[in-house]
Write a structure and sequence with these properties.
By secondary structure, the chain is of the alpha+beta class. It contains 20 helices and 17 strands.
Length: 580
């Protein structure tokens, strides 16, 4: 969600801040007032090409900054992680243009590349009116849109894991075959190294344990003296600490019988004496365990010498040597049974190709069932939006397979596959009877494209993960009842997403949850564009103005009120129709 948009010294705008609301945000205004400037500024935040000509005359640079609510947006979190940017619930996206032609991009005040800015923009906004930001016009994303609609997240994740494991196994086979000669040539070296390690028979963590014990043995005499002296002073000697504390206890007890405030101290001294006894017993036991054993010390030093020599020879720590031993044993086993090992791995590949093929087939069937639902609902929605003779198809295809050993196995046949399965999905449409189906990107009319996008977004709304949708030119070529249907569709879409739509039609403007108007003023010979959020009364007058022109009558105002009041009923009717 776009919480606010700040624009400074961009085209006709000197400085404005727009705070957008949830649901449907409508922007109206006279032609040339500056509505397109707002979209151009937003486009900059999405990574559009910039020109110093866009900087307001007399200014050194232009600034566009958007504050987005990004809670739960995993793609944004990943982009920020990749760029070492801290992000919580908000992301501040800023772009600056200078007269020198250079520009700077920021995410949460951290400089980033234009590519990173564009990646963030593509995960935040779908802008309909400039094709490069329309996700539905990018055919490579159609399968993702279909998978979201079909709820394939878990199955797709499982498939990707299996597919990556298959690729890793195939790579391992290839690497082994490429290195077969070297593996066999190194067999004698590996055998010698393995014998050296096995002769020493190191254990995990053994060197650390030996070093600790050696240190104790080397200082055993000193430890014995210190422990004995401490034990004697605390417990054994006449006048020891324990004896003295016993006398202190009796003194405090006598004091407490006279002054009750010292009762807690009398109780505490008992605990102190108990602790002293416990420490004394620990020192006694520790002293009795100390063993002055020169033979054991020599044994420890000898074993440490063996391990140190082994670590020096292989220039590895002990845990690294143990890992090396496992690898050497594996390599020797492989060299001795190379053909059998390769055959076993190839059998694993074949089994994996069959298993993964079954997963891919199941996903394909779910997709095709989902595609039928989308195709049916899209045509209904397009008809409501004034595109009556449309045809729409979710087209399925498969990639070419040049090597039968590649891909996955489905029903006994090898099929090309990616980490998403063997399906290739493209949305095709025809908006006129008799015209052939074409990819969405080849639909020419701007207004038509926007309505097709609106229809698709309406069907896919609950699954679409882009939080903000922007529509421009959506009212091109529509009026009357169709315009009212477009407005109702935008309103319904606003229950799942934040919508910003520029319009000239009262039927669409009347559906606004929040209404803005763009105005152009001339001050001291200079033009300024500004945008205002309308009050409820101003909203009614602006809709009435769209109905009648500059001269607004009481009838116009009543018609505007009726139009605005009808939005609840329109939304209910549309929702009910979807469940028939």
């Amino acid at each position: 969600m776009l919480k606010s948009l700040y624009i400074k010294d961009f085209a006709l705008i000197d400085s404005i801040t727009v705070e957008f609301g949830k649901g449907l945000n409508i922007i109206t205004g006279e032609t040339g007032a500056g509505k397109s400037i707002l979209l151009s500024a937003l486009g900059l935040l999405l990574g559009d090409r910039a020109s110093s000509e866009s900087i307001r005359n007399g200014a050194a640079k232009a600034i566009v900054e958007g504050i987005f609510e990004v809670s739960g947006n995993k793609k944004i979190k990943q982009i920020c992680t990749d760029n070492e940017i801290e992000v919580d619930s908000e992301l501040i996206v800023r772009r600056e243009l200078s007269l020198k032609g250079s520009g700077r991009c920021f995410l949460n005040d951290t400089p980033v590349s234009l590519t990173a800015l564009k990646d963030a923009g593509d995960s935040l906004v779908d802008l309909h009116g400039q094709h490069e930001h329309q996700s539905l016009l990018r055919s490579e994303l159609h399968i993702d849109i279909l998978d979201d609609f079909c709820g394939l997240d878990e199955k797709l994740s499982s498939f990707e894991d299996s597919f990556r494991a298959l690729l890793a196994l195939k790579k391992k086979i290839k690497d082994l075959q490429d290195n077969e000669r070297e593996i066999k040539r190194n067999r004698e070296i590996y055998e010698y190294q393995l014998k050296e390690i096995d002769a020493a028979a190191p254990l995990e963590g053994e060197d650390k344990e030996l070093e600790d014990e050696t240190r104790l043995q080397e200082h055993a005499e000193k430890l014995l003296d210190l422990a004995g002296a401490a034990y004697d002073r605390l417990y054994e000697n006449t006048g020891s600490v324990l004896d003295q504390m016993g006398k202190v206890k009796e003194d405090i007890k006598a004091l407490a019988e006279i002054d009750q405030s010292l009762v807690p101290a009398a109780e505490e001294i008992v605990s102190v004496i108990a602790n002293i006894k416990e420490i004394s017993y620990q020192l006694r036991d520790y002293k009795n365990k100390i063993d002055l054993d020169p033979a054991r010390l020599n044994e420890l030093r000898s074993r440490l010498g063996v391990l140190q020599a082994l670590k020096k020879k292989f220039t590895l720590p002990l845990d690294g040597i143990l890992r090396l031993r496992e690898k050497l044993a594996e390599e020797l086993s492989l060299s001795a049974n190379f053909e059998d090992a390769i055959a076993d791995m190839k059998a694993d590949v074949k089994n994996a190709r069959v298993s993964i093929g079954a997963q891919a087939l199941q996903m394909s069937e779910i997709r095709k069932n989902g595609a039928k639902i989308i195709e049916k609902e899209i045509l209904v929605t397009l008809n409501e939006l004034g595109i009556a003779n449309a045809a729409f198809e979710v087209h399925f295809d498969a990639g070419e397979l040049t090597n039968p050993d590649d891909g996955v196995e489905v029903n006994g046949k090898s099929v090309d596959s990616t980490k998403k399965g063997f399906d290739r999905v493209v949305f095709l449409i025809s908006t006129n009877a008799g015209e052939p189906l074409k990819p969405l990107a080849k639909v020419a009319s701007g207004g038509e494209v926007s309505r097709i996008m609106l229809a698709l977004k309406t069907i896919l709304a609950k699954n679409d993960k882009l939080p903000l949708l922007v529509f421009d030119e959506i009212d091109t070529g529509v009026s009357g009842r169709v315009a009212q249907k477009v407005g109702a569709a935008l309103l319904q879409l606003g229950t799942f997403h934040q919508i910003i739509s520029i319009t000239h039609l009262p039927q669409i403007a009347g559906m606004a949850d929040t209404h803005f108007v763009v105005e152009k003023d001339s001050i001291e010979g200079r033009s300024y564009s500004r945008i205002r959020k309308l009050t409820e009364e101003e909203h009614i007058r602006e809709v009435a103005k769209l109905l009648s022109g500059e001269l607004i009558t009481e009838n116009n105002l009543n018609s505007a009120k009726d139009l605005i009041d009808s939005k609840s009923a329109l939304l209910q009717d549309r929702s009910a129709a979807r469940h028939l």
